Amino acid sequence: MSKPEVTRREFLKEGGTLAAGVTATLASVPYVHAAGSDEIRVGVVGCGGRGSGAAEDVLQAARNVRIVALCDYFRHKALGLRKRLYSFAEDARVKQLGNKVDVPEERCFGGLDGFRRVLECDVNYVILATPPGFRPEHLEACVAAGKHIFTEKPVAVDGAGVRVCLKAYEEALKKGLGIAAGTQRRHQGPYIETIRRIHDGFLGEILTARCYWNQGDIWFRKRESGMTDLDYQIHNWYHFVWLCGDHNVEQHVHNLDVINWALQAHPLRCLGMGGRTRPYTDPKVDGHIYNFFCVEYEYPNGLRVHSMCRQITGCDGNLPGISGVAEVLVGTKGVCQVNSFTINGQPVVPRETARRYANPYIQEHTDLIESIRSGKPINELKNVTESTLTAIMGRMSAYTGKVVSWEQALNSKEKWRPEPLTPDNLPVPPLAVPGKTALV
Ligand SMILES: NC(=O)c1ccc[n+]([C@@H]2O[C@H](COP(=O)([O-])OP(=O)(O)OC[C@H]3O[C@@H](n4cnc5c(N)ncnc54)[C@H](O)[C@@H]3O)[C@@H](O)[C@H]2O)c1
To answer: Which pTM does this prediction carry?
Structure first.
């Protein structure tokens, strides 16, 4: 499946400037490795929806890519992806790039330690696509093993995990490792152009901003026979905070990331509220996440950002004229709706051009691979970690009813993962109650 990409000439004809991702696609790629090979050898950790998608994306992102190892907590999912990838390798675009799938069954691993087996294979590029509760540990191990990383968002569920990620970021910088994050809007041409306009002052001084992720009910996967508590929670991970961070973190991080990107800052403190309307009897069965949040963030210079997310079917997504998943900035010179790439109602990038930009899910791998091959690896771990912490502090405030500062969230003693991670009798905390749940 070949993806249409806007060419430099077409874009300039339409009066634009090239987005970073597009420029990278056009750049020549030097051979930089001592051994003369610049092959990207990929291991995938987490073979569900996104891990499968990312595996296909990397095969379309650049030449000389080989997928060599797969792992999923449920090994049968790794074997399922293996089959799917062999079939995908027949795709014309994959063949044209000379890319390969080379995963014998013995390089399909399962269990909690499967990711370590992947790192022991001859991989130099790891895709991390498990639920975010495992991400800090996986990032730390990949960096220690000297691998380049594509990590899905978010990268942690609590301050303890965030601290691990920030250390991994520093360590990766020292080792010259490349890390790209699945905050794909940062690799999406029209988003890049729109944010660039904001940074160039087209909106004047920014006065305030808003962002939203309002959608219907999230999926719920029932416990299957023979599953331990641990199996069930990993299977139905979106309903357990130690695995997903709750949806202010798991999903809304995308929009909060756009706001941090546009403002070139992270919030100083916030006050949030939220709750759960979904039926709730036993947290071990139903999980214990909220299904709506509303958070006001304070950024430097007193700038306020209003943020809202919801997973309830049958509700309106937003006021008329704006979608349920959106980011808006208001400045002294007007209003920018970032997600629709408009400033004062005028498209920043002509609509036809916007449609022809490269698929950001592929572009993020293209950008990472090109940066590695050019010897100047990008490292997006700090940005995505800060956006993750932005989301975490909103959840902490909503759960407790307290104002939460950046430092409180960063240095928090909160640690959601049950220790030890036993197959059975895994405790699940009750639903948080604002005013009663303690801020730790
Ligand atoms: N950037 C995006 O637009 C986007 C879109 C979808 C999902 N995601 C992110 O991707 C991640 C995965 O989401 P998904 O939709 O693919 O979920 P999923 O449930 O489809 O897949 C997750 C997979 O990880 C496996 N897994 C869980 N724990 C594991 C472990 N310790 N080791 C190995 N495998 C493990 C599960 O068995 C499952 O197969 C999440 O962080 C999510 O936020 C990002």
So the answer is: 0.93
